[in-house]
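Let us begin with a simple case.
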Amino acid sequence: MSTTEPSIFTRIIAREIPASIVDETERLIAFHDIAPKAPVHILVVPKTEQYANVAELAAGDPALLAELIGFAQHLADAHGGEYRLIFNTGERAGQTIFHVHAHVLIGDLGEDPRAE
């Protein structure tokens, strides 16, 4: 992907691409993932394309990171309470869009991999 092209998330924020928007604030937008990994799978995306991953966001704007986590909690509370919050950082870790975003997974995710 060229760094001069806006990410798909930037295009969703600009309403150039449709998305099932759940909620938004002045600095964040939340919408359903098109390939859900849980009964409820919501992406929370800062409206700035400035940060590629969560480490960059934490270093560059810790207040926005805290806002994102609080917004994820708000969404989880509205959809069942318990959730997983996942940030993929780097291609080998599964990140495919290099515009920082969090996955909020709510509901039965199958068997707990830690359970034996």
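The second case is a distinct protein. As before, the sequence precedes its structure tokens.
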Amino acid sequence: MLLTAPELLKDETRGVVVRAQVRGGPAPTVILKHFRDDPVSGLDDWAGAEFLTRRGLEVGPRFLAGDVTARLFVLEDLGRGPTLEALLRGADPRVAHGGLMATARLTGQLHVRTLGTQGVYEVIRQALPPRHERVRVENARFLLEHEGRLLRWLAAVEVEAAPGTHEDLEDIARTLADPGPFLAFTHGDMAPSNVLFTADGPRLLDFEYAGMRHAMYDALMWLVSVPFPDELVSRADITYRITLSAHCEAAQVDSAWARARATVALARTVNLFQWLHPRVLEEDREWAPGLSERAALLHHLARCRALLAPADGFPGLARTLETLEARLRERWTVPPFSWPAFRQDER
């Protein structure tokens, strides 16, 4: 197989992505990924693509071949098409709405078909240069080891953590490390730019943060991380839940569903305060295109508060975050973020 006419798609510190034409092969083009400065995420990406391919799941590009020594692997080229982000930045709210619902449905299909397959995934991942710790344990450990970063924010706005905050963080960390019936293969970075719409439907790109963890981790995209109109959040949640409920009994139980959502929402909200320094109090910067760090923090706090309302538990951490939100809203006036596709509907 001869590769020609390379087209550079991405060149970052972490790695390089190239599209190349194939002479004498079954496909006209393929995608080559070379990972250099972060071999763990590169191998997670490789393992995720290979796992999905072996399972016959048409969720992302098929894995074709790889060379560990060269830190290089080859994927099916899904072709060109709009991403979910492009739909959200477009002018048609119906298209953007349909794109989000299709993404929620695809996410549910990914999870429902990988429940209970952690052993299969681990065989593939550990056959590569092995990972010393599972991604879900890393997530739980980070939450606890950096509790001081949350406390630093509280001190900066002159409030104290409510009693029970530490115990609630420990409770959440235990669930992250052992999600029980919600353990599934997750993409791990469900940004709108990582959802590609092809002729065969939506597909997920870039599995650098993939691994077996709490299924709701991927649902964070619409639940907490990315601003959407409330009606769309509810519809995406219902779409995802219906899909997952086909083979996950816990997803059929309202109390279990509410607690699962609250658990991952709290973890992600605390994570954001762990990632960002309190210097945001003095200087606001861009967090994502069109969304500032202050806007992201306030959005996470508001969505987390909404998801905690129907859930049972975490009173200490909930009170701490409510107090923190109140102090930040006293300091900041941040205009709400709205995707261009939905701005006409909001007038």
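Residues 254-275 form the longest helix (22 residues). The CA atoms of residues 61 and 146 lie 35 Å apart.
Keep these points in mind for the review questions at the end of the chapter.
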